[in-house]
Design a protein that fits this description.
CATH topology of the largest domain: Spore Coat Polysaccharide Biosynthesis Protein SpsA, Chain A
Strand content: 15-25%
Distance between the termini: 39 Å
Number of helices: 10
Order of helices and strands: EHEHEHEEHEEEEEEEHHEHHHH
Structural class: alpha/beta
Number of domains: 2
Helix content: 40-55%
Shape: globular
Number of strands: 13
Oligomer: single chain
CATH class of the largest domain: Alpha Beta
Radius of gyration: 19 Å
CATH superfamily of the largest domain: Spore Coat Polysaccharide Biosynthesis Protein SpsA, Chain A
């Protein structure tokens, strides 16, 4: 099983200096390693050529974000499995074997995510994917080990191999044939939550998304956009809405769309009360962009096969903010 690890880079020389050595040391015997450079203006590619000549470089013509960056790069890579790996991820010894074992165990498994822990505090799960992701009834994403901003301590409670709804784009393994069959990542997302859409479409055509706690990586997180950056708020709210229009099953569609207008309005009010009105404005801009793209994504929806239903019919907002349930195991 031929594996290609593909690291997307944009002006990230410092991150490459910090994190690329672990990838080379613990992966080069089992996988080909690529850096897909999104038209960087720093010395990233020169650094790789000088210090890691075994790493192959793909130079994208423009910075098209996460989605287009990977779509462009993966067209020229021959492999059975792609690993989409953030440039701020530290991998561990023998991290690849458990992933490959999951793929080999079931041909219907199309995507696999390892355990994602916080590089800054390696006892904690990391925000971007923790121990595998789900979406609630209203399209809000959450993870085993991370509900909203509450991060659980890793106490080996998620050392299993299990079906999940979505895998984190920070470290996502995908069968190349499936990736190209569904058209890759949706470039209209630019960045954030495009991996949720990818996984949803994979589920729609009858494949599985899995998590294995037997493989561990450490993610720095926020290397491109900090959590406090309003543009990140904009992308997360907008792209979550786009996921709803594109993928939510017909029986839930109108209910979810109108409910999100109310719930996102409450989120905007919460930011005002927290004296962070710039994030309220980001939510408003997200909705303006959503309305602008509504019929375009409605067209994409019509082209998709049967919509995969939710794993859990729950409101994560209700359970977290009203009922005070912070841990995944407490959710009903």
């Amino acid at each position: 099983m031929k594996v290609a690890i593909v690291i997307l880079n944009w002006n990230g020389q410092k991150l490459l200096e910090q994190f690329l050595p672990s990838v080379v040391n613990f992966s080069s015997q089992e996988a080909d390693i690529y850096v897909a450079d999104n038209a960087s203006t720093d010395a990233s590619t020169s650094y790789i050529k000088e210090f890691f000549p075994s790493v192959k470089i793909i130079e994208n013509a423009i910075n098209g974000g996460y989605a287009k960056g990977y779509n462009d790069a993966l067209q020229s890579i021959d492999a059975d499995i792609y690993c989409l790996l953030n440039s701020d991820v530290e991998v561990t010894e023998n991290w690849l074997k458990p992933i490959i074992d999951v793929f080999k165990a079931d041909k219907k498994t199309a995507i696999v995510q390892p355990k994602l822990l916080d590089f800054k505090d390696k006892t904690k799960f990391e925000y971007a994917g923790a121990a595998g992701g789900y979406v609630d009834l209203f399209g809000y994403p959450y993870c085993r080990g991370r509900v909203f901003n509450h991060l659980e301590t890793d106490e080996n409670q998620f050392n299993d191999v299990i079906d999940i709804f979505w895998a984190s784009g920070a470290c996502l393994f995908v069968r190349s044939k499936v990736y190209h069959t569904i058209g890759g990542l949706d470039e209209d997302y630019f960045a954030h939550q495009e991996e949720i859409d990818l996984c949803w479409r994979v589920l729609n055509i009858g494949f599985k998304v899995k998590y294995t706690g037997k493989s561990v990586v450490y993610h720095l997180g926020g290397a491109t956009l900090q959590e406090t950056n309003p543009h990140k708020t904009y992308l997360n709210f907008r792209n979550s809405l786009l996921n709803v229009v594109k993928n939510v099953p017909k029986k839930w569609f109108l209910f979810v769309v109108f409910s999100r207008l109310v719930l996102d309005g409450i989120a905007g009010l919460k930011f005002v009360l927290e004296l962070r009105p710039i994030h309220t404005w980001a939510i408003l801009k997200a909705h303006f962009s959503f309305y602008k793209n509504f019929f375009k994504f409605l067209g994409k929806r019509k082209k998709l096969s049967k919509k995969q239903d939710y794993n859990l019919h729950t409101s994560i907002v209700w359970q977290y903010f009203i009922l005070g349930r912070k841990k995944f195991e407490d959710l009903k």
